[in-house]
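Severity: low
Component: inverse-folding endpoint
Summary: output formatting inconsistent between runs
Steps to reproduce: submit the following structure tokens with default settings.
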């Protein structure tokens, strides 16, 4: 539920453009950071359990072309 709300807030902040990140990606990043701290503390390599589907490279290239903060030319990407 919280992730849904943050996505709506992201849409409003970005003028209707969805955030480039996903909740799954954010969860994976947090796990990655926490595992790094555990590894540093214990000296033991940590296994990650979460995964996420990355955005296709074509979509990332389109995002790079957007003129932020007024990205009206990117409305077709929604």
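Observed output (run 2 of 3):
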């Amino acid at each position: 539920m919280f992730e849904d709300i943050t996505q709506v807030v992201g849409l409003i902040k970005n003028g209707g453009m969805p955030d480039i990140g996903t909740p799954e990606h954010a969860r994976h990043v947090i796990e990655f950071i926490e595992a790094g701290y555990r590894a540093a503390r214990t000296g033991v390599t940590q296994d990650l359990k979460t995964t996420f589907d990355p955005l296709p490279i074509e979509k990332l290239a389109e995002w790079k072309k957007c003129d932020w903060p007024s990205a009206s030319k990117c409305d077709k990407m929604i």
